[in-house]
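Hi there,

I know you've been waiting on this one. I reran it after we fixed the sequence typo, so this is the corrected version. Both the input and the resulting structure follow.
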Amino acid sequence: MHDRVQVAVIGGGISGLNLARRLSAAGVSFELFEARDRLGGRVLTVNGEGAPSDDGYDLGPSWFWPRLQPALAELVEELGLASFGQSSDGDVIFERMSREPAQSYSAVRQTPESMRLSGGSAALVRALAADLPGERVHLNTSVTGLALREDGVRVDCRDGAGAERSIDAEYVAAALPPRILEATIAFSPEPEPGTAALWHGTPTWMAGQAKFFALYETPFWFAAGLSGTAQSMVGPMLEMHDATTDSGGAALFGFLGMSPAERQAVGEQALTEACIAQFERIFGLEAGRPVSTLFKDWAADSLTATTDDLVSSGHPAPAPSWVHGPWADRLILAGSEVSPHEAGYLAGAIEASDLATAEVHRRLGQRGPYT
């Protein structure tokens, strides 16, 4: 770890990786700190046992829309990543009431089409990370404090073994949700009350969500003329979709419609049984016999959600400026939540980090490709 760099990047999700990759290509020195033992943040692709995988199921974000999100589409093309369309052929099922059977309806082809990356969304993580010098990327390393100095910022961090160290940076780019930034890092001086309130009041996308997957030997719903898409007013899942991988790993998944507190009270085992029973109601007896299941409650992930996210979730709103007062000269927010147009989405991570890259170039007085 270098003792002084031009930019300290906090967070190794899509936004932090894209920012670091852009800075590295421009010759800007950086150190990237990620508290998790993996890169990707809320992007997490796993196999049937729940372990991170190069070809699996997305427990976090999965879709992107090339026609509506050209910057992300261009990056996917630049990185040479393959993609495929979300299943939309076949009927859609609606479950309106518990006392009546679910009904099938002919689907209307989605326009614009939602796409998924071959291998899962983690393919984007791997491609972005591949261009970074490994010695500048620090996993299992939490930034614990930021102290403003006349010529920059002292960045205090702690690794997984508890060892503490500080570096000096001209600028800090916080590529993590504002609410997590406010809750986990000690500032000296403290941010202005209005800035702290803005960060605290900005919900983190996915923080209140939970996804359930059922994996099968074959995607039998296709043979039955079903798309794998279903909506329910009964629950526990309100929205369900096909999650079959590009390589043929058959799966269905659903977003749970229960609050984080309700999920915690019910427990994972009971939720698993209820979700399997719902898939069986909607897709038939074969859906009640999955090979394995996966469950991810992002509200239980301390690096994604705070206690405030348990009661305040959803898409964050744009703000004219995210940092005020003395920190405005040294701190740049770069997480997906601060994206002006795609807050919380994968495309938002790209937009926010590209804007942060341009701001770094401006402040360093360099003419990079994003100035």
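Quick highlight: Residues 4-43+125-205+306-364 form a domain with the FAD/NAD(P)-binding domain fold (CATH 3.50.50.60).

Best,
R. S.
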